[in-house]
UniProtKB/TrEMBL annotation:
The gene is LOC104955630. The lineage of its organism: Eukaryota, Metazoa, Chordata, Craniata, Vertebrata. One of its GO terms (molecular function) is DNA binding. InterPro entries: MerR-type_HTH_dom, METL9, SAM-dependent_MTases_sf. GO terms for biological process: regulation of DNA-templated transcription. Transmembrane segments: none annotated. It comes from the Eukaryota. Residues 1-29 form the HTH merR-type domain. This is Methyltransferase-like protein 9.
């Protein structure tokens, strides 16, 4: 009995032909240039009825990407409505994730410690951590 492990590159995992039981996307949605495309790739890569996505996002949602040492807005824009943490969780669940073909099974709030700056050693932010499944009424073209 032997196990062969292979580390897949950032642009390889979704093109392997595999379907995954679990995919984690932790604090990435607000830092990638194509978040809607990422959600589509994840949906298509999960085992249809049993696969799960564990997704964490810092709220309030403030997307930007670093390109060449400069911060800029992503090429695809996810607009998250709401002023409070709870309102943004509700909007992500009912609008963003639903339109991307997911249903929320569970959500929790966790502290997220991130790198500081010249003023603070670290920052404590509010993460929303979702367990998502592919929606039963989602087609391949969604």
């Amino acid at each position: 009995f032997s196990v062969v492990l292979r580390l897949l590159g950032i642009d390889e995992w979704q093109h392997t032909g595999f379907q995954y039981d679990v995919i984690s996307c932790l604090n990435l949605l607000d830092r990638c240039e194509h978040p809607l495309h990422l959600l589509q790739d994840i949906r298509l890569s999960l085992v249809p009825s049993t696969g799960r996505l564990i997704l964490a996002a810092v709220l309030p949602f403030q997307p930007y990407v670093e390109v060449g040492g400069k911060w800029q807005r992503p090429k695809e824009h996810i607009k998250v409505q709401g002023k409070t943490w709870e309102e943004q969780v509700t909007n992500l669940s009912s609008e963003v994730f639903r339109k991307a073909g997911f249903e929320v099974e569970a959500v929790t709030r966790l502290p997220y410690l991130c790198e500081g700056d010249m003023y603070n050693d670290y920052y404590v932010l509010d993460d929303a951590v979702f367990v998502l499944k592919v929606s039963d009424n989602t087609s391949e073209s969604a």
